[in-house]
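Entry type: protein chain
Record version: 2
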Amino acid sequence: MPTFNVPINQSNVNLDTSGVAGFFGGDEAISAMATVHLYRGRRWLGWYNSPGSYTVAKKFGQLANSRFWDGLFPGPNLTPAEVFGLDGKPGPHYWGVFSGTDMPTGHLAYLVVQKAKEMEEVVEVGGRETIPQSVTIIDVKDGMLKYSNQAPVMSIHHALLATIPITISLATCALCAASGDWLAFALILLGVISSGTSCFVIGSAQLELVSVKEPSPGTPPADGILLMRSDVVIVRGAEKDINPITKGKFVLRMDGGPEYRGIGLCSLLLLAQFLLQLLSIPQATTFGQIMFISSLAVSWAYNSFLSSLEQEKIQVDVLWKALDNPRLLKFVLKNRAAQAVFVCLVLGNGVQRPPDDFKPKKVLQRFISNDTRVWNVWRDKVAEQLENNKEEKSFNLSSRDLREFRDHERALLESLFQAARDAYGGYQEQVHRIRDNNHIYDSEKQVPRPDYFVQNHV
């Protein structure tokens, strides 16, 4: 077969690219591979000479679970979802104010909190400022999880950029063959095959969001709060709709479990690629080494682009589609006492709730547990106003109530009751938005939109 002559091959230059072959770009390659389940059709688009094969092999080889694979790829045997960053983050504490559920949450509640933190549109409630505290309201309705566990995935348009490194890898491979450098040709082709095969096998897993679909009959509304150090997320909805947030998790359904031999073989192929490229690329011609580095550089740029897309944000988008895009409202209160009163007012505004189910004093105690005479009187008086059925509520103390307190205690009480009045005033101003955002628990009125459901297993 005739080949064209490349003048640079006549020089004595050797680029010594062996160090680049397996170590360069490893973290970016891992981040890029972690998105393979989040984009529709992404598993078909891994056919390029990706750098970092050694790092990727050591990371995902830990999924293979047997004595042989544990010896070859030592490390903890995590679940597929944990390895790909789809599980494992601890969430905030959840307290159901009607059901009494009090439990820690997991990765999905963590994602909900991240979504709340990202909200830029906030409503500020006036008052005396100490440490600002936020309250985010999320109303969850009857989403698609009623019909399927399969999580909706993102559009393919970002993943289609993979055609650039694929084209460059194949082009450099062809140029090496045309110049007669069959060693560089084989090494680039090996990288394309090992990366593409690994992406296809790993990406064949099906992403699901599993949860408790059918709670016990007669279960009260699951309205509750996700408690953080200074911020609070109020979730409102039926038990079956809140369960994905409080009890659900992402799961990757992979064939071949629990040994996952296919993953082990792909990692072994990546390891072989690393060793062959490490030992053989210095023997290639200067032109072949330039082509090899060029394919790695373009592939690294694409992997870096995928890494920059923030996997957690993509997971939030996937979760929000599965929940049928619930609406959010975010308020910022000036202090903890105002935040506690505001939360009580929001939770007390639920629909289809028997009056005796809601105990505002417990909510206030949960937020501010100080066991002193001043705080106890404040909680009692505020709870009394929150429990009455009057349209207008009065957060004031009479002179007779204040008579038994010393001057500094009176000052503190007045400050606390002013915080309650500020919270009530802010609530009254925004009550129409809070009620419009509220969820109607009649699940028969909610019809999930099927256009959100995108098959992941393409």
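Comment: Confidence is low (pLDDT under 50) at residues 350-354, 439-458.
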